[in-house]
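Interim report, section 4.2 (structural modelling).
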Amino acid sequence: MTPILEVKHLTRNFGGFQAVSDVSLSVTTGELTALIGPNGAGKTTFYNMLSGKFPPSSGTILFEGKDITGLPPYKIAHTGIGRSFQITNIFSRMTVRQNILSALIAHYGKGASLFSPYWRDAKLIRETDAILAQLGLSEFSDVETRYLAYGDKRLVEIGIVLANYPRLILLDEPTAGMTPEETERMTALIQRLADETKTTFFLTEHDMKVVFSVSRKIFVLHQGQLLAQGTPQEIRENRKVKEAYLGGSLDT
Amino acid sequence: MPRPENKRREIIIWIGTLVILGLLPLIINTYITMLITEILIMGIFALSFNLLFGYGGLLSFGHAAFFGVGGYVTAFLLINAFPSVPAALIMGSLAAMLAALVVGYFSVRLDEIYFAILTLGFGMMFYALVHQWRSVTGGSDGLTGIVLPPLGIAPFSVEISSPRAFYYIAAFFFLITAFILLKIVRSSFGLILLSIRENKERTTFTGINIRAYRLSAFVIAGLFAGLAGGLFALFDRMASPSMMHWTASAEPVLMTILGGAHVFLGPVAGAVLFFFIEHFITKFTDVWMIFLGAILIPLVIFFPEGVLGTLLAGKRRGRKIKNGEGPDDTHS
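Predicted structure of the assembly:
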């Protein structure tokens, strides 16, 4: 299988501190992959480099064989990589529908239309409604997102990401701060999207139950370095990983 | 989001506005006519400012620079080049747009207070320029002696120098500006602009080059500020440095906060309040600024979304509760 994402010797320094050091890994097309590691392992730094929030200090990032190292976020978004954030990142004084529409307009490059009302664009509205239905958010279409429950806000963010029709989706702790019910709903959604669409998911997650139930391949970061990789079964039995986590949280 | 059934209501509002603005001079005296002319011109200025502030989330403290460029270029051309009001106004607006392109190119890279300070700095530079460049701008005296030539070609030309005739010119451009800007804030471009205001990071990561959008908004705002400045120079029969003083940049800010930044006509409502408060207090006292301040403070406290914004939000909430719906957005 060809890798959708290939990372070679990726390093990022902040002053004297090496947040990510010499990480090489590749994500297989269509394989739900997870990136785990204790707090401060460098997961978010790693994602920020992949999505262009800041460039790596050294190393290269290949997406579908194309070098995207150091490109600005808006260009990376257009190459086909979408991402969500650890802390909910949506448009709060806009309706749920407007949130999705905004990303669709960005995707199709229709933002330069100065005079055409976006709500008359039948194609945009149809696709917005389809995404909202997919997420089970249809009933909230016209509600401003700041009035939504936390779990629904996180779903809106997934919707914004989906509206870019990315081929690779980076999810940074999609269930962070969720209730068990919300977590279950999110997990089921990710599973379903991964099965139904051709999208490849690459997620970080604290909740080991989620990680082991959805992913088929796991990478473990520890102190900025790649500690281990393998199937959930292999990672579960890996001694180095157990030590990194000091026993506890892998037993779920 | 506006729904189809609102369309009829909107047409009624447009026609109503047209009729009221058309008939108003027939029933009011010259003084009030001139007051409303000034409100319409400053309304254009404040609306252009709010494209940046209310919709783009950019607080410009140098917007008077473009108001001034529009005013000076319009005045200069009328005095020195050709006796055509429309041509002078168009050239004035385009010059302001060009100035906005240059200032915007540097300013939109920055956010919030840094953007505000940089635009303030540019504004002061423009002020210093017109103040010092005596041979062209007339220095502190400004460009005086504008004579308004008749509009159109004889024998079909109309005199526009009377207050009432000039009121109609201002009303015409006010309606055009409101129509175009309303179209823009409701377009795909407008939604992206709103997204940038709401969440810059999320917008970038959906594939939007934020600087390009901000610069476009800045240039459009500059164009209409220039139009307002041109009209103001015609109204005053002069272009003076005070049009570009940094306190002049504060006026659209004040009007917008007063009326409401998150409703389209908020800045216009603010302009109405501002001028009526000013003109009615100056009847009784010269220190009207003190009283303006005393009135503004409670208005800002009790109308956090601006006077118009807060009133409309209250009305909308009432309607929603009656229909048993959830809250709606406030930008339509």
